[in-house]
Amino acid sequence: MAIRTEEILLNVGPQHPSTHGVFRIIVKLDGEMITEAIPVMGYLHRGTEKLAENLTYTQIIPYTDRMDYVSAMTNNYVLVNAVERLMGLEIPERAEFLRLIVMELQRIASHLVWWGTYLLDIGAMSPFLYAFRDREIIINLFNELCGARLTYNYMRVGGVKWDAPEGWIQKVREFIPYMRDKLNEYHNLVTGNEIFLARIKGVGKYDAETAIAYGLSGANLRCTGVKWDLRKDQPYSIYDRFEFDIPVSTNGDCFDRYNLRMEEVVQSLRILEQAVEQFPEDGEIMGKVPRVLRPAEGEIYSAIESPRGEIGCYIISKGKDKPYRLKFRRPSFVNLQILPKLLVGETMTNLITILGGIDIVVGEVDC
Fold first, then answer.
1. Res. 148: pLDDT tops 70
2. Is the Transport keyword given for this protein (predicted)?
3. Do the Cβ atoms of 138 and 152 come closer than 8 Å?
């Protein structure tokens, strides 16, 4: 005779340390097994898209910092790039190099935050400390460049706010071999660890058809064998000048997503190595831009590859100094859609593994 158990409801969050922000999941449990999972978001909602309707285009830039707050540079870029395309502006080469360098440094910093916090989520303390030690080098570089450590407000429509200080490019050049060496240490410490492998290998699997149906992007899509990266497939800025690979795997589990993000750091270092060697010795950092930005009447959708996948900015202009409508496609929000599907039939232990493997930033989920 089968033992009958009573299902219980359990709140995970909204202050749970493994949710990477204020986020809540209501799970229905039958013993240790999850039978239903309902994400509850909105605790960080600040109405960014609505606020933008009453802000000039330059005033919107600091709001993008507060969305994905561990990848603020890429958020800055997707907005200014949309406005520049709408206005048909030309960007000076030195400014484009600075933008690309900070975006790839930001990708590495973002993946370091993910790596450290993911390992912390599933029970390892030391990797978190190592990751933040190495991320601090990037944060210090950003601090020298724009005077901020998290929310940078660095990019402007037409270029960038500040030029690189003397010796800054050399510091970026020195960081590249340092980070390569540390990546090897990361792999020796974690990637082959049998406890770590038992926790994530084969967990949270899905196929390419499912990934596409849910609109996933970034490592959450490429782990299913779909080779799609906007830096290659729809090149923007000056990415088409550099040689780099798009890592892809086929198992579609948490371990594949882990490996892809580690390999993306390798490819970002390749891009940086080429960029610092080709960096223009002089030049302007701002193009010819009117003092008051009034894009012509029309609409534009601009998308780039953020550390979490495709982030897009859709703008409708009525020819005024403020957008008529602004909408962001946030990869954290879109990628999170698959979570309820992945959790059914899993244990509570695997809930943390799967959620952390998706790599969300709740500020971007709620916007």
1. yes
2. yes
3. no
